[in-house]
Design brief:
Length: about 160
Amino acid sequence: MPTTHEKVSIDVKGATETIRAFSRYGRDVNPDLRDAGQAAVDRIAPLLVHAMEADGGPSALVARSIVSRRDRYPTIKAGGAKAVTTSRRIRGRRPRAGDLFFGAEFGGRGRPTTQQFREWRGNRGYAFYPTLRDHRSDVVDAWQLSLNRLAEKWARGGSE
């Protein structure tokens, strides 16, 4: 069974149109856009890791899988196929971070297979999503500042 991961893109109003506008400079602008997206998320990735580690239990196991992705939009990845160290096995193998992410973040206890997690919390989350919501504006501000610099750079010809 494939291991899941959560890829979270920070939602910014008008982001698609902005990225589309950069396409007039050609494909050469894409590496700069990817650097800008990753740099904006690099600011909060350590905060997300810390929040998950501080939450303890399965959240702490998942924390090491949180990485910023090099994408044109600010994107964070959590979970995935990274094996976590635990005494239990799932389907005869060591559990992966993706096996634990959603239970650690949102809880479980609704069925026999999710008793290792805390009480289900709906879509609020315990650590990852509350921290992400608290620092969303920081990411958006940093990304917009980077995009403004890129627009000035590419309007001058793309070289600095």
